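Sample intake — DUF4193 domain-containing protein
Collected from: Kocuria coralli
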Amino acid sequence: MATDYDAPRKQDEELKEDSIEELKSRRGGQQSSSVDEDEAVAAESFELPGADLSHEELSVVVLPAQEDEFTCGSCFLVRHRSQIAEERNGLKICVECAG
């Protein structure tokens, strides 16, 4: 239903004159017949660009830290030993975090 925003609004006196029964009867007749759609169901109809990877299974091989690597005590990234800048409280700090 279109709304006419240029139409004059009801004054406070007119709003007070509407009885609760009258408002309920108007409301009952104007209820929408549309049903709210579930967001998950609505999202299934959208297609995102690119390939459909929903049925793909990802597998990652996790390797332990190598002898020439360390974990930075600040950013917690695994780095090569050549990236050690300093040691604070027994934790090795990389060049990027120390700078």
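Post-analysis note: The mean pLDDT is 80.
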